[in-house]
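Per reviewer request, we include the raw input and output of the structure prediction for the construct analysed in the revised manuscript.
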Amino acid sequence: MFYSGRMQRRFDFGGADITRWRSRLKSVLDGVEMPPPRPPTGQLIKSIISARTRDEVSGAAYERLRAAYRNAALLADASPVDVEQIIEDVTFAGTKAAQLIEALLLIRERRGDLSLSFLGGIPVDAALLWLETLPGVGRRVAASVLNASTLDRPVFIVDSHVMRVLGRLGFADPAGEPRAASEAVTATMPGWSARHFLQFHVELKRLGQLYCHPTEPECRLCPLAGECLELRRLNRPTRAPGRRRRPDASSRQMPMLL
């Protein structure tokens, strides 16, 4: 069950709903391969630079950072100006470059090195809170470091696409915080492994990218249209039935961890 922080209890969903949604979302992963998980520090770097940026752009920027600095220690000692030039095509490149270096320096100051492996041995809630004290790290980034890396922790990642879909389904308050949606899904599925949470994240994200757009959603093509409370509430006009749109090659091949 999900409770809005600003309202009385408004939503009543459970594991059966999420299980049913997953069974209907299998098609959105057709042709998509999940890449191997990154080390947690690498996932932190990738997640910080990926906010409000297309996967293919942030993925390429991350690979350029790896080629230029080879390891996190060299990146931590880099100039923010140099890092900004390398990741210049991501959104807010200058801010992200500064936050990235500040976060790495703070990790080294606290821990003596840049390894985040210790986060695998403390409770998930404590690990999330520790990460969220770093510059540029909110719940989306913190959850991705724990779940999508080799740490393999059971916590749900909520980005803007996922939040939009959950809001339209009625599981989350559309005006609420992604943190609350992440905690609600994580608490609703206590028996799920980290992989289950990651796959559900990717499925909802793909749904948001392919059909559940911020404006002009393609509801007639959406596999969850029959579950959408917003569609029923607004009686939103939908496009005429037609052939299912095939994702282009870049969409099929994009990095899927965030």
